[in-house]
Amino acid sequence: MGVSGKPRGSSRTCPQRRRRRRLPPSPRARGRPSSASPGGAQAASQAELEGRMKGRGSFQAASSSSPQYKKPYSPEDKEYHRRFQIFMSNKQRIDKHNAGNHTFQMGLNQFSDMTFSEFRQKYLWHEPQNCSATQGNFFRSPQPYPRAIDWRKKGNYVTPVKNQGPCGSCWTFSTTGCLESAIAIATGKLLNLAEQQLVDCAQDFNNHGCSGGLPSQAFEYILYNRGLMGEDTYPYLAKNGTCRFDPHKAIAFVKQVVNITLYDELGLEEAVGRYNPVSFAFDVTDDFMHYQKGVYSSTQCGKTPDKVNHAVLAVGYGEEMGLPYWIVKNSWGPDWGMDGYFYIERGKNMCGLAACASYPVPLV
Question: 310, 349, 351, 356: which one is catalytic?
């Protein structure tokens, strides 16, 4: 590393050293501790050291907070230091966001040592999906429906939050979650259905395993395939595999697939309020991966069917201080967001959430 502030030429070659006139400090520098002074340098170094030590402690806590997310980093590895730099960059962005005036708060989580590019490659769809749910067959009713609802509080109708892992299979979790709830509301029996069957077997319905798919197309697969197995007989592996469907072990069936008309968010609201939770897809951008709590709203995301890249489950809706929101179940585990859930602004087709929504009518 070069030493700043000194000319590269050696003073020994000069026969005579000329005294330089010291310039007065610039107005910008006045009243500010000089890094050249021992006190200023010590204060700056101490603040930087404390910041980095605090960040490193947060990094170590975040990377080992859960056995499921524990990262195989050692302080002696180059990868450890690379991940720490990414972590600190994300932490600075989180702190800056939280210092501003926003409807939601960011926080550190299992993704904090990843770039958004890495996150997108592992957890989101790799290419735009052909959303068949844009051709709606949902018919609105003139009858009133609830002004607010949360299916988690109405009974044993929603399974616990699951974790898709590093596989773009969110669409399978949105699908099973929706069908699980629809069957529970219809029968009182809450099943735990097999996402891995959809990953392995639903390719003929324009789904692509860990590379993406859509709940509407997964519901069609279950309808025409005549059934979906349970998680206990077809466990989740978070990777593409060979189809092992056994029709004799199918426990869930679909009678009809209902698609909400493109951009009809009131229709989506009515379906959730009147019938059951509804699957939808939306566009995840880099500010969403750090979501912690509050009502998510963004100007970065797209709003059309070709932009959506993540499928989730609307389990209710409400309003907070005049701000309407959706209650949404995600598939990134209970450590993310609000115990695995998030709120997103309602009534504005936020991030395209009304561009691709559907639910099944179960055969019970």
Answer: 310
Mean pLDDT of 307-330: 97
Catalytic residue among 206, 309, 330, 349: 330
pLDDT per position as a tens digit, 105-150 = 999 999 999 999 999 999 999 777 767 665 678 988 999 999 999 9
330 is catalytic: yes
Whether residue 170 lies in the annotated active site = yes
55-70, pLDDT tens digit by residue?
A: 565 566 555 544 444 5
**Alpha-carbon distance values, 155 to 159, 184, 331, 334 (Å):** 11, 9, 21, 20
Closest CA to 280 of 331, 345, 215: 215
Catalytic residue, chosen from 90, 131, 167, 170, is: 170
Q: Which of 314, 189, 329, 208 is nearest to 218 (CA)?
A: 208
Q: Is 243 in the active site?
A: no
